[in-house]
Amino acid sequence: MAAIIRLIKRGSSVSYAARSFSSHAPLRKERNVQWVFLGCPGVGKGTYASRLCSLLGVPHIATGDLVRHELSSNGPLASQLSEIVNQGKLVSDEIIISLLSKRLADEEAKGESGFILDGFPRTIKQAEILEGVTDIDLVVNLKLQEEALLAKCLGRRICNQCGGNFNVASINIKGENGLPGMVMAPLLPPAHCMSKLVTRADDTETVVKERLRIYNEKSRPVEEFYRSRGKLLEFDLPGGIPESWPKLLQALNLDDYEEKQSAAA
Ligand SMILES: Nc1ncnc2c1ncn2[C@@H]1O[C@H](COP(=O)(O)OP(=O)(O)O)[C@@H](O)[C@H]1O
């Protein structure tokens, strides 16, 4: 990880580790996974990436969380960032890479290796910088239809005490025009979080629509970047967590990994 931090900081294009994972190969032991989660706002990158991180024992690094942490701690970049984030725009590559480098350095100091990146890279420039400094094994592209994305963002609630992520939306989209229907039950918080729920300032209808527009303009090309390198695993979410999680594990060849982990525990 040290090499990644140094090189990300330098913006160098030196290549780092050897390739070690293809989407259908079993997990190898030499180093932990280095995966990326792509997908539109509201698709559930954070939910599925953090579950996989717990399963695989790697840090979950979400650049959106790094930005929100900088905002809430009133760091030197806070006022500049709040304006950008609350308009649904992207933070500059320079600022994101500086926040990410700091986080990677912290993980390294804790002796962590491997990672799942969530929300990075989001531009071709970020993807090129990342490619210049380390080998990404696999990129998971989570997909949901736009109607569900909007409903999920508007229904998202966060507990301001424990940080838990919940969703009050009850989604029931009828199948039409060749698109499948979709039912997603709300993900309600436990009673002790109920009175502490907050909504993200950028989860309003206008800002979510702008974030979706920006995703299509700036981040959609990142999918092609990884598709052309044979690293993209497309995953259409079939519903909420109960339906999607087992299918995602299957797609990642991790379905019996979860059983082995619980048996070993
Ligand atoms: N890689 C990135 N590049 C630029 N801006 C970013 C990046 N990651 C996060 N941000 C900023 O933080 C905001 C919140 O990010 P995130 O929680 O990942 O949101 P989303 O739900 O839109 O995927 C983004 O709208 C953007 O302003």
Automatic annotation (TrEMBL):
Reaction(s) the record says it catalyses: AMP + ATP = 2 ADP
Assembly with partners or alone: Monomer.
Family: Belongs to the adenylate kinase family.
NCBIfam families cross-referenced by the UniProt entry: adk
Organism per entry: Flemingia macrophylla
Catalytic activity, EC: 2.7.4.3
HAMAP family found in the cross-reference section: Adenylate_kinase_Adk
Keyword Transferase: yes
Name recorded for this polypeptide: adenylate kinase
Gene3D superfamilies, per database record: P-loop containing nucleotide triphosphate hydrolases
Xref: InterPro entries: Adenyl_kin_sub, Adenylat/UMP-CMP_kin, Adenylat_kinase_CS, P-loop_NTPase
GO molecular function per UniProt: AMP kinase activity; nucleotide binding
Lineage: Eukaryota, Viridiplantae, Streptophyta, Embryophyta, Tracheophyta
EC class (word): transferase
Alphabetical keyword list: Kinase, Nucleotide-binding, Transferase
Pfam families from the UniProt entry: ADK
